[in-house]
Amino acid sequence: MCNLYQAKKPAAEIAALFSAQIPTPFNAADETVPGWPGMVVREQAGERILQSMTWGFPLPQKSKRTGLPIKPLPVNNVADVTKPMWRGIAPKPHWRCLIPVTAFAEAEGEKGRKTRTWFRVKGEAVFAWAGFWRESIEWGSVYTGLMTDCNEAIRPIHDRMPVLLMRHEYDQWLHGTIEDVVGFQSRGFPDDLIEIERTSEPWLKASGEAAAALL
Q: What are the tens digits of pLDDT across the range 186-213?
């Protein structure tokens, strides 16, 4: 699963790379964790727009002690598009989006001493993760990313990875059928296009809510 990624480029630069407009200005952090805002490219009235959304579809939760509703859990990754949560979303192109990414991370190392290992796509300052979005009562516009089995480059670190899109695949993802969605999830991603950067950064270097989102 992917619980941390970066989009270390100004919104205007990302919008230009994705041929998108920015209808409403917004601030964006360099790093995104579940439950926090991130940049998303989607289509509206036939044009691509870049906007800020919350990363994760809200999943209702209840207190085990009281049985009363508590803060929802952000579901930020999609493993199986046939599950009930995604059946009404995955087949409909209207709910597809592109998630701009400059690097995504996985935790590596011993428990309690895990560090951040970053992955990038060679030759691409910004690349796209295949995503879905919708409107929610709890958090407004929200998005999530489609996952797949890892390739051989990532396998030593994790068994899953985001579904990464080539530039020429953007339109097919945004407009394709559910068969296209399943095809993207099963096609794999070239090993030789993945760059790996191992770091000494602690995985949980954030505090408070950000740290909790990374668990």
A: 999 999 999 999 999 999 864 333 333 3
